[in-house]
Amino acid sequence: MQISAQTLLASQQQQPARAPQSPAPAFAAALEKNGGFQPLPLKQAVPMPENPMATMPQPSAPSRPGAMLDIRI
Predict the structure, then answer these.
(1) Phi-psi region of 65 (alpha: psi -120 to 50; beta: other; left: phi over 0)
(2) How far apart, in whole angstroms, are the C-alpha atoms of residue 63 and residue 66?
(3) What is the greatest pairwise CA distance in the chain?
């Protein structure tokens, strides 16, 4: 589906302008009551390798930048 610039502009002009919404006062009060945002207790599921670069595939020969790109027009 293609939308022209005129159609997009016309649809935006038909919608009433909205005033920017401010955060609800109850939201700020709830944050103050709970002590704000707390980090989640997450733990690592898979152990990290000692050398992460060793697990990455290494290129067999040096190549020029962009050699892996396939650009078709």
Answers:
(1) beta
(2) 8
(3) 61
Residues listed for the chain:
73
In this structure, which amino acid lies at residue 28? A
Q: Which amino acid is at 21?
A: Q
Q: How confident is the model at residue 49 (pLDDT cuts 50, 70, 90)?
A: confident
Does this model's pTM top 0.90? no
The answer to whether 37 and 31 are in contact (CB under 8 A) is yes
Two structure tokens written together for 36 = 């704000």
* Number of alpha helices (DSSP H) and beta strands (DSSP E) in the chain: 3, 0
